[in-house]
Specification:
By secondary structure, the protein is an all-alpha fold. Helices cover 75% and strands 0% of the residues. The protein is built from 4 helices and no strands. The relative contact order is 0.14.
Length: 106
């Protein structure tokens, strides 16, 4: 995947949008999800080389905010923590399967 200036800008915005999770878990998660949705609009507004394989790019960019979610969840205890870690693991399995097959059906 070629990483253009446009992809870099969108990726950095996604990273910045993930950081509030580390300070305010719930409100930060809402911000991270809204920033995640906004990349489609950014892609249409910024014209600096495009985003090559958007599905692949989006999966890797999603991993940033999911890692912040995981970091917060690891501070929990009991069932909440186990469920959060299990769901993260399930998502990673899906991401690896997508990368191997390049199929959205996975």
């Amino acid at each position: 995947m070629a990483f253009t200036l446009e992809a870099l800008i969108i990726f950095l915005i996604r990273v910045a949008g993930s950081l509030p999770v580390l300070r305010w878990a719930f409100a930060g998660a809402v911000v991270a999800i809204l920033v995640d949705f906004s990349d489609l609009f950014q892609k249409n507004l910024i014209h600096l080389g495009g985003v090559g394989n958007y599905q692949e790019f989006d999966k890797w960019a999603d991993l940033v905010y999911m890692l912040t979610f995981l970091y917060v969840a690891l501070k929990w205890d009991g069932v909440k923590r186990n469920v959060a870690v299990g769901l993260f693991g399930f998502r990673i399995i899906g991401m690896v399967a997508f990368e191997i097959t390049s199929s959205r059906a996975v």
